[in-house]
Amino acid sequence: MEDDGPQTHAPQVVAENWTADVERLLEDWRNRVYAAQAAHYASSDRFRLLNYVVGVPATIFSSVVGTALFAGLEKGSPQTFIVGSISIAAAVLAALQTFLRFAERASQHATAGDWYSAIRRDLEQVLHLQPTARGAPKECLTEIRKEMNRAGQNSPELSGREWRRQAQRFRVKEPQIRV
């Protein structure tokens, strides 16, 4: 009869290493990535809206100016002043839209939100598995931490206001920094 000792006892040792502190860390990380996911999606929505708020009037103003030029304007008339003002507004809005890159920023935040969403699902999967099915805590935590670091390094910066709003919503406890 063969001895299955190490194979039989390994899951118990792994399960014992999944302490309450490790579980709390996973919960905290899940809350953080959930907050980051929500903040990036909210930022994406905001930049998408700004793209329309600036882009639609720029398009309309440009069309109005183009149409007015075909109608023929008299020098010094009020219509000339209005068309000139609209032309300047269209140029300013188009320049702002190009410079501020609202559509590109919206896309970057949406991608970051998707990435954090995938990490959150990974964390939820681990949290819902029995400790014996999770593997060793150190390897699991290291893999998740590295993915969180990659997401953070490759994601666009969030506004402090948006992060604080989502961190509060998902009960993220930020360390108090004393100055």
Fold blueprint:
Blueprint: H1 5-17, H2 20-71, H3 78-100, H4 102-128, H5 137-154, H6 160-169
Helix pairs in contact: 2-3, 2-4, 2-6, 4-5
Number of domains: 1
How large is the radius of gyration? Answer: 27 Å
Which of globular, elongated, flat, extended, rod-shaped describes the shape? rod-shaped
State the end-to-end CA separation.
Answer: 66 Å
Estimated helix fraction: over 70%
The chain-level mean pLDDT equals 87
User: Total number of β-strand segments?
Assistant: 0
Structural class: mainly alpha
Please give a structural write-up.
The longest helix is centred in the first third of the chain and has 52 residues, at 20-71. With 179 residues, the protein is an all-alpha fold. The chain has helices spanning 5-17, 20-71, 78-100, 102-128, 137-154, 160-169. The model is unreliable at 1-13 (pLDDT under 50). It has one domain (11-169).
